[in-house]
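REQUEST
  id: r-88c1
  op: predict_structure
  target: FAD-binding PCMH-type domain-containing protein
  payload:
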Amino acid sequence: MIRQKLEMADKASTQNVLHVKPDSIEQLKDVLEKAQQGNRIAIPTEGSAEDAWAHRISPEEKITIVDISFLKKDDIKWIIHRFKKSIENNPPVWIETFRNWGQTQTIPVIASVPTTLEELKRLLKVASEEKLRVRCAGSGHSWSPIFSDRNNLLIYMENIKSDYEDGSRIRISPGTVNHVDIMTGVTTRQFKDFQLEKKLNIPANVILEVVQMISVVATGCHGVGYDVKAPSDYVVKMRIMNAKGNLKTFQREDNKMFKAIQANFGCFGVIYDMTIELKQQDIVKVENQYQN
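RESPONSE
  id: r-88c1
  status: 200
  body:
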């Protein structure tokens, strides 16, 4: 008789347990709302736990066991859901698989292309709150794993507007004749065309014309010429936005600190622009002489 009563109690308890396994944030919201409407206790678990809970409740209790394994499996989707909500999707963010030019790096990332300083500031603030690492990418020509970490934030800076008075992205620095301000996103080809137009010259640069000039500097590319310095050595000023959204200015007069800034690999924040010291263009005459 006692055994029969226990079996009936176990059966009633089992009937009061509802096990659900949502596959998305939207389904999870729907499950929780229905549990609340039905006066059910929602218990989140990873994997099935129905049998374990069935023997720990009274016949009067109604429980919904919610398997939230998908949150762990699709962690990046959960992160971007919160991210979009925090920044109101301005600027837009999305999930993509980043691949570098050489196809040696394949990384799932949260990506964004800010167009203003305010949008950049908003991205960095939310990334800091979410404890995400932030990296920027240009044309992706590096072979090394210097891009975003898996499931973290990757920012493309080619479309960000400058704060220069004339709205340009590259200019002669005010009050100078051979210092050039270069916005992030400016390519080496655009920089080369500017040098030809202004009759200025950087002693060493890379051969590629599709990479971004700030990326060349930030990664310490050596350029060409055995008797000249690297492009980063000619940088005299750099503006960088840190994780708090503050735009900091670093100059050559900062001595030892600036040595680290010149080729910083993004470790100090997101580079907004830089100033490079150039020299006047050399005009070279070439004559070919042939002996009889």
